[in-house]
């Protein structure tokens, strides 16, 4: 066990060292007419009240509004009170580029920064992180360019006031963007998926399995129109069954293809892991930030992959889907935030509303015992029924 842990840590350190070497080389390059700027929640009076306070339920608050050209290169946010009193899944963050009245980024703030459901846990990747204490420092290093201004707002949909909202938005101001600079996009989706009509026939437990070549009824991670490249996803799975949820393949359709352009071999395979993992693991490009501690794969899992060295390119469109179990056999509570760049700031689909984002309850020993009780009655109620 210690050897495995040491090997994993060594691989992460080597990967980070390579990335740091590339970044340090970039720091040697001098840039003309570029100036670092910041918008933050600091106390304008010079005092120590460095925050927005008492943001009422239903109110929107602008945290960044800058004209001209530039690139946001760092965001840090922390919020009070904690998730036990204030639902991060019901604080919405939106980003508007180049004077558009529609957002190109829209997501609940927790899932955007890698905090699933309304939980708080440490999370580390190259572009996004949630740092100590217990994931309360929300961080982005995604580059977010704009040519004619940028605006970031939050909306409180929690049903109570936000006591305190602290933030930094760091950016570089420049005369104009380099030619061909894309615009950052992010979109949140959530769906309670439907099982097959004849039951949740995963691993052939209920009989012969079907086939899925077309991607019909797959879960939708992104449906993009335009030219660009896809750079990653945070994927949140809540499973109501101990059965492995990850036999579902990723199926990615590029430039209007009728059949998948990129067809995967399983959920954990797309996320660079193998054999139904339940290990917390952090690589700059992929990992498991939260795993279930329940029976089998019952419960909640957060897995992520970022296409930093291997973006997925498209010229006209890209539709990214994934099965929920093989042949879409399983009922799962799925949510995701997809991240990509496009040649221009595009309108993204509306995200699910507050009622559609409600979490499904946990299933535990009491529920299982009640199901066993009903099964015993169905089998005649013999006092020595075992269950196999």
From TrEMBL:
The UniProt keywords, alphabetically, are: Hydrolase, Signal
Q: Where is the signal peptide?
A: 1-21
Q: Where are the transmembrane segments?
A: none
InterPro entries in alphabetical order: DUF2961
Q: Please give the Pfam families that the UniProt record associates with this protein.
A: DUF2961 (PF11175)
Gene Ontology molecular function, alphabetical: hydrolase activity
Domain of life of the organism encoding this protein: Bacteria
UniProt-recorded name of the protein: Glycoside hydrolase family 172 protein
Organism of origin is: Rufibacter roseus
